[in-house]
Inverse folding.
């Protein structure tokens, strides 16, 4: 069986979106900078453009996550916000299980299916793992990641740490309660504009 | 003139202390783990002890910060909490300027002097820079760092990122307002138990 992972871009001050994220603005105000740094790089202090090799490093890390992911569990809020922007060919190309209290029929778009699961995070994970086989199950976004983390069901966290301070927005790590959680940093991939940090959760 | 820097250990979820930090417990509940990981390492998953070389890397990074620091600006709260634990030989060995609304006579302990500054962060920085010469001025802790950051007076941030989730405590980055701040990641030093990340602030 594969691992249960969180894989998200985060600002140095801990945000995965800017403020006021929603259907009109999926990444919130300024949140698109998180992705700009990774996909388009960012001129350095000398004003020169980022080297192609830097962008290639970022793509390789993201491609690796894509290849190792066999299914996805996501929150209904994320689905509702992104359904329209994803269009007819959502980028996942694997089965997606959407946690929700509001039942809905299975949706098939391109190579991605969205199944709506109303019986909790454990059941959603079981279903995702059943289809993922040896591949990983990726869970997102912040609220869902926090639930799996607190339930002790998460194995790994990959953070694409982007050197910006957004100041406001949606934090990846909050509402985690008072018990501290020990991690081990298992990989650091350095690229201009972003540092890819991988952690496993120690139990 | 040297740079104005922040140099602090931070958990992956953004805390520089655990909850309920104060005179009785300077690093808050569980906050000592931030330092344990750096100074004493942490057994890995196999149960083996950290290699001495890993601890040496951490010491080298911390020694470098010590060597390049010519003066310190700190908040009165931090001073009040740590005054007793520091004892007669505080670890700084450079002039320290304490931001406060409550005047107090200069204190000299070992090779460290504490000067209490009541006329604001700009004036405290000027006085610190005057004695630091070509060396850096280090500002701490969270609240003071936030003030210098918002005033546009900070040049660099070094984070010793410790792979634990404390869940609660004092965040390094908050109250920063709505304007996002762009950084450049200028160095990554990888060591088991901690990743040392250095950023310069782009203006």
């Amino acid at each position: 069986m594969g691992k249960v992972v969180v894989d998200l871009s985060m600002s140095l001050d801990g945000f995965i979106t800017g403020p006021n994220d929603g259907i009109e603005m999926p990444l919130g105000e300024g949140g698109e900078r998180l992705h700009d740094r990774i996909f388009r790089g960012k001129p350095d202090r000398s004003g020169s453009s980022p080297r192609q090799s830097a962008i290639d490093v970022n793509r390789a890390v993201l491609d690796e996550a894509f290849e190792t992911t066999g299914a996805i569990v996501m929150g209904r809020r994320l689905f509702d916000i992104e359904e329209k922007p994803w269009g007819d060919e959502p980028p996942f190309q694997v089965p997606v299980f959407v946690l929700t209290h509001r039942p809905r029929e299975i949706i098939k778009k391109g190579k991605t299916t969205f199944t709506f699961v109303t019986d909790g995070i454990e059941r959603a994970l079981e279903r995702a793992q059943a289809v993922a086989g040896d591949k990983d199950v990726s869970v997102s976004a912040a609220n869902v990641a926090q639930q799996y983390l607190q339930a002790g069901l998460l194995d790994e966290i990959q953070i694409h740490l982007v050197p910006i301070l957004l100041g406001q927005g949606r934090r990846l790590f909050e509402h985690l309660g008072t018990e501290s959680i020990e991690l081990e940093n298992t990989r650091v991939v350095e690229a201009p504009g972003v540092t890819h940090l991988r952690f496993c959760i120690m139990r």
Remarks:
- The longest helix of chain A spans residues 52-68.
- Chain A has a mean pLDDT of 92.
